[in-house]
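Please review the protein record below. Let me know how this chain folds according to its tokens.
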Amino acid sequence: MAMMADLPGGDDPEPASMDLKCLNYFVTVIESGSFARASARLRIAQPALGWQIRKLEEELGAQLLIRHSRGVEPTDAGLRMLGHARAILARAQEAAAELRSLTSEPQGTVVLGLTPSMNAMLTVPLLRRLSAEAPQIRVRPVEELSVVLTEWMATGRLDLAIGFPITSLGGLVWEPLLGEAIYFVERAKPGATTGGTITFAEAARRELVLTVTSQRYKAFLEKIAEPHGIEIKIVHQMQSVATLRDLLIQGTAATIMPLGVVAREVAAGTLAARRVIEPEINREVVLFQPDSRPPSKAEQIVVSMIRELVVDTMVQSPGFWVPIQPGVKLAMGADDAQLPRDSRQGANEDERFAVRAASSPARGKGERSGSFDDLLRR
């Protein structure tokens, strides 16, 4: 595959003669951090690998790597080229897979990103169903926080992702799947029964732990607490969901979060959970797909199965997951004006939450495009 390189010294540059193998070498060197490790991964002699990279740099007229005793680092030009190279390699793989799919049964690997709660909910039943109904398709699940998943979707590292909407969705399309009900979770007390409800005012007065990337969530909780004159006591912010779970089990603090991440511990009686009310809070979960290409047959099958599994899970666990109701007030994303200015600027994650006061009348089915009601009718 030939590419046009922006070389100095002319209005009509010669086409660079790099090929897909050369681009793969370049990406592998950066991901490995050194020529030695990349050489071992690629099973190519280190001098030959170095020659390929130097040839690429000469063709592009730019230094792509800085070589030092600890390995290599990309230059600014190298970082730019890395994004192009990954995109080109991904498109080449997509083209080959699409052409093969025209004359064969759906097959291939779909890289699916999921938040921790969605991973716990969907991965096992999805893999089990694929094995029974479409064994030629492989799903490789990747668990991460939503802000990371959307970044990886934008760079082509994921084929599909399930997470929370953010403000900037360039290059991505999304559809609502369901809402995650928000619970107050704490260490189970001996002899106490789990379940029931707790008002937000009561929950917010407890010492809480949150994930460090959920700044929008933190701002949202503070916005609800403000009219009550409550100062939310956030004593820890964790990067790791697993560490947050350990703190809860040890009784160090409690949290306000969706139940899916700790469903097993709640079922085992290690943790206790109560639904937050006054107001009820539901977090919207969406399915991301790239807008730059049509989905492969394998991706279409996986998406269809995800939609059906979501409906099944809603029926089996009505307290964990709720329909996305049309016409609800969006406290984040679509209605940023309700948040303080400092929480709107520079935020990494723009989660959307549906809030309904306990005294509000139940809503019927609405007309919102892409709502969970639409999904139930599919």
In short: The longest helix spans residues 76-101. The longest strand covers residues 172-187. DSSP finds 13 helices and 17 strands in the chain.
